Each structure stands twice: as structure tokens, then as C-alpha cells.
Amino acid sequence: MVIDTLERPARTVGAALDVNHVSHRYQLKGEPLPVLDDVSLSVAPGEFVALLGPSGCGKSTLLRLVAGLEPPAEGELLVDAAQVTGPDPSRVVVFQDPTLYPWRTVWKNAALGLEARGLLKAQRGRVDEALELVGLGGFASAYPHQLSGGMAQRAALARALVNEPRLLILDEPLGKLDSLTRIAMQGELVRLWQRQRFTTLLVTHDVEEALLLATRVVVFSPRPARIRAEIAVDLEYPRHRDDPHLVNKRREVLALLGVGDATN
């Protein structure tokens, strides 16, 4: 499989992210449940970073903190040197489930962000542009029940892109897709990232997917999550699954995750 590439524009629009000594915990039956332990991470503008680790280790919690959906128990998160204190349209989350409103068309689902901010009348052209970017220009008037799983996730991506995010936060967005659709969507994500130059933070359980998409892979320990290793993926796009360098990096990551050469 080959991931296609588009020439990158000269301008970088991505945000810089700094996670400084962040720890977090939840209360479970009155007892603290630590999920993050002194995590520090810096992401450069326009970088694509994938987060890997055991299920339940705290990766998705870190994404929630970056998105500003809740504050960290300890430490700080900075976007372009400004402290994250809550959600912001420049930081957009795409979840595993598309969460489209079934009574709204694809176009109206994609327009939600602009509508909520009172910008739709002046900037409605951004909705059409986003739908074209994800290949749904011909489905603007369709409803979610008329879409395949891959098309619904494309609509969710369009909804995110309409906000012109500087930081795109992806929480296993391809996890529920069939294998062929997932491969196609991996290519779409790379193309969108290269074209738009937003900073991307991806949580995935698929080691191969992380290596195909990201410029750097961060491997976490079991909960409470600590950073075990950071691996630069210094391979040109398009990337091939059977590239010997990628295969070697896959073995390296699997060893860090404690599963040796087990099939991913």
C-alpha cells in the first residue's frame, strides 16, 4: 500500500504544543486513580505526532487535556506559549465515532462550528471547500444514514477542517472502519495534513498506522502513563508497509510495548 503525497505549501499554520510535567488522576469509588504521571512533550508547528501505548494507559486523557476539555491535576499545557484553559476553535478533536447529527445534512453537519460562532453567513464558502477537500463535494445534501462508515468519518473531518484548526486532535478516528476503508482514510489524513499544515496529534492502537502517518511516535507505559520512548520516523512520503526501514521501526515499537514480533 502506498500513501500518496501532495506538495506542501511554504506557510506553516500549525501550532506549537508544550506539555510540561502534566499529571492527572480521576476519582474512582472515592479513591484517586492516577492516569498520567509527569508527562512532558513538545510538538513543533506542523508536526504529526502519534501516541501509542496499552489500552487504558491515559493517551485519550492527554488528548482531552490538550483540547481543553478538562484541566490537568498538575503541570501545564501551552499552545503557542499560551496556557490552555478551555476549548478553542483552533484546537479541534475528531473522535472514533463521527457523531454526526442524523437530522442535518452533510453540509449542515460540517457547518456546525461556523454556525455556533455566528460566522456561517459570511464564511459559508469554507464549508464547500472543506467538503471538496475530503471528497464529499457531491454529497452535501446527503444525510448521515445515507453514508458509509468511511464517508461519515470524512464528514467529521470536514466539520473539523471548516474551523481551520491549527492543532488537529485525532482520537482513534479510524478505529471502527473496515481494513480497506481504513487504508484509504490513512492516505486522506496524510494528504490533508500535508496540504493544510496543521499540527496533528493522533492516538491509535495500530503500530503500523502510526509509522505510516506520523513524523514521530511517542510510546507510553501502562497506566499511569509515562513516556517510555520517542521514535523519529524519518521516512519520506509516500510510505510503503513493506519498506525495510518501516518494518524495523515496527519491531522496535512492538518491543517497547512488550509484544515482540507479535502480529499487530
Describe this structure as you would to a colleague.
- With 264 residues, the protein is of the alpha/beta class.
- The chain folds into two domains: 189 residues, Rossmann fold; 64 residues, no CATH class.
- Helices cover 32% and strands 24% of the residues.
- It is built from nine helices and ten strands.
- A hairpin with a 2-residue loop joins strand 1 and strand 2.
- The longest helix is centred in the C-terminal third of the chain and has 18 residues.
- The protein is globular, with a radius of gyration of 18 Å.
- The N terminus is likely disordered.
Strands, helices and their partners?
Blueprint: E1 17-28, E2 31-43, E3 48-52, H1 59-67, E4 74-79, E5 82-83, E6 91-94, H2 106-110, H3 112-116, H4 120-123, H5 125-133, H6 149-162, E7 167-171, H7 179-196, E8 199-203, H8 207-213, E9 216-220, E10 227-232, H9 244-256
Parallel strand pairs: 3-8, 3-9, 6-7, 7-8
Antiparallel strand pairs: 1-2, 1-4, 4-5, 9-10
Helix pairs in contact: 5-6, 8-9
Keywords summarizing the entry:
32% helix, alpha/beta, 9 helices, 264 residues, six-stranded mixed sheet, Rossmann fold, 2 domains, four-stranded antiparallel sheet, 10 strands, globular
